[in-house]
Amino acid sequence: MPALLRAFVAVEIPEDLLAALEAAQSDLKRRMRARWVRAGSMHLTLKFLGDIPAGHVASVADALQAAAGGHTTFSLTVSGIGVFPSIRRPRVIWAGLSGPTGRLLDLQRSLEERLVALGFPREERPFRGHLTIGRFSEPVESERLAEVVNSFASRIFGGFAVKELVLFQSDLQPKGPVYTALARARLKESF
């Protein structure tokens, strides 16, 4: 294991939902150019940690356990697409989340507080849950992009249960990142 690991905390997405997002990407590929995220690499990121010492994995795993243990499982729906930061200057294209997003925000805040206590910097931007499906590396005509985004406004891709936090190592490769789960922490079952 290398001395420093590029790491992040996320929720895994089930195969059926990944397949639906991949089908949407196929449609989008015919309509615009972007660097598309491989379906198997899609996840709901809660916190990007950057490069961490391998020796800190255990304490980060403990923080995940503490955060997850304070929350019960819940389900979200993935629907519609949008872009960050804006239609005029798009850099990321994403699929949106609906359902009890307040519970997702509470979970992310719990995780953030526990990681800040370990010395990780607090995220400056407010958390906005989404699934990144592509990134733009060249300018996109904003009217055309708005048209495409609007055509997906009512599209529902599927749902998934938020039941586990995963600490991933990200190994950047020429063909795209390879993610390895280093630790998992289950939320409490809801009854």
- The global form is globular
CATH-scheme architecture: Alpha-Beta Complex
The biggest beta sheet reads: 5 strands, antiparallel
Instruction: Please state roughly what percent of the residues sit in beta strands, choosing from under 5%, 5-15%, 15-25%, 25-35%, 35-45% or over 45%.
Output: 35-45%
**CATH class division:** Alpha Beta
- Distance N terminus to C terminus? 40 Å
Number of helices: 4
Global mean pLDDT:
93
Radius of gyration: 17 Å
CATH topology, by name, is Cyclic Phosphodiesterase, Chain: A
Please tally the β strands and state the result: 9
Which structural traits does this protein have?
Cyclic Phosphodiesterase, Chain: A, 29% helix, four-stranded antiparallel sheet, 9 strands, alpha+beta, 191 residues, five-stranded antiparallel sheet
